[in-house]
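Milestone M4 deliverable, item 7.
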Amino acid sequence: MTRLRAAAGALNQTPFDWENNRQNVLDAIEAARKENVSVLCLPEMCLTGYGCEDMFLSLGLQENSLAVLKEIVPYTHGMIVSVGLPLFHRSAVFNAVCVIVDGRIAGFVAKRFLCGDGLHYEPRWFKPWPQQVRDSFEIDGVEYPIGDLVFDCGGVKIGFEICEDAWGSARPGGNMSPMGVDLILNPSASHFAFGKAEVRQRMVLESSRAFNVSYVYANLLGNEAGRIIYDGDSLIASGGELLAVGRRFSFLPSLIASAVIDTNVTRMKSARLASFHPDLIDDNPLEIKCAFDWPSIDPELSKPAPSIWEHSPNIKEEEFVRALTLGLFDYLRKTRSQGFIVSLSGGADSSAVSCLAALMIDFAYRELGEEGFNKRLGYVPGLAEAKTQKERVRRLLHCVYQATRNSSDATRFAATSLAEALGAEMTCIEIDELVDRYVSTIESALDRKLTWQRDDLALQNIQARVRGPSVWLLANVKNALLLSTSNRSEAAVGYATMDGDTCGGLCPIAGIDKAFLLTWLSWLETVGPAGLYPIPALAPVTHSPPTAELRPPTSMQTDEADLMPYRVLDVIERFAIRDKLPPREILQLARGQFPQYSAEQMIEWIKRFFRLWRRNQWKRERYAPSFHLDDENLDPKTWCRFPILCGDFQRELDEMS
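Output delivered:
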């Protein structure tokens, strides 16, 4: 036997949702069995969910994960299945994989390299397993091997790199190659970020080439625990050739990608290399021998079948819409919210959020079909009776335009025409009376009139804050999820009103900069996602400068006049926060990118950024949960830590003069 069919499974799991997680694992096993798969790799921590946080240190979680594991084992006859779970062993918790061979537990592999940067805090919960160490782990009185192990299953050797294990220079694969490993399985929980799929694919291809193995990479899928979106990227490569690519951003609860590999091909590639020197050790204690009868496989050639949008010239725009819509769908159903509420102002941010909510419905319905869609959202009253896209949108999306005397006819038209085009329910409310009542109350308390000359910021903010209670009330009445609409550029400089436009249980676009968001809206207006459609009703939004519309119309207020051009703001933010550069270096780099602006103007904008950044950390701490989209996130709970109280950067800013 030289040929075998291997598969990677992508699963949409939820932290300690035992029945859901168990069923998704069983469904993936059944799907693999139907494709005559012999080896199935499932994602990291797929039994518990990867995002259990401090509950990984709960004894109850450990007991339940083992109980679910034992329920899954009998369904694996005739297959080799790897299942990720935490293991409490010798007073420590390890990030582990259980290797099940033909309906029996063969042993456990524990992760050697823990991820402790960016979004990940694995060293808080887990201990790294030492290299080339074997121990035993007891379940119901039976001892199983655990450690840095390789499994010889009927003559085919299988090793593991668990997610982060594959990204360092001293990775386990380097030790496995001389041992004659044929197949490396990589169960992962690798978060989505723009362009990351290409990086993963290069890693998988190069691993299969450098180690002369077949390499199977399985990732989680969907919005598992709230903030992180997993794209379900499943990859299989052999000897430097890509054999299978799974469908990314699927709305299905589980799916697999499989391919036929030939162990003799990779073995002969090793034989041809003068640099390859096999380990000639009998009875290696790190090698576990397991009996397994491999079925015969037709000598078919596997070819990857990428989605129609994967090679789009607008790949970032495509990834953005697909990641956000999947994230919204899972957040909606996992919170059992009965729809979305959006305070639709006619501006770019709220328009983007409204479009994403509507597109989510269309993406999910097209992939899942009527029965699957209604099953996944079966708790929403009346949804099954909706027969068209617009009827479904109307049931799940309610937009609200809240006007003051400072609101323009242009933004009202932009909001109402977009809501109509999407099919959303639309409500327009006049709030001047409420604003005036608050203003008069404070005027009485201060015994003076509030004026724009003296009280500009306060008079702006009260308008935004008055809008909050109405949409919260509507969301409560409808058991819906209120979506706030602030973006990352505004979060960086605090250009948002707390308890106003930041109201919401979820802020889906807080991880994306305003410059890209404006580009994405123009693309959505004229091109749209592959397989769907553009939204021409966005034209009034894309052709108007962003404005808060909180000052009197005579002031001609725009966001960029209040702050700086968004493209400049985003560049300064990246240099200052992502790259941690001092102002003097930022000035040099920014002037190189924007030679049209004078040094004096750029210095003023850099000073403005640093002063606004340092005094608005308290706002970023209070933002609603947001989705992680790239490695420039400002979320202080997952990515970018910064003190609430700090100095004013005066010494650093003076160095620019």
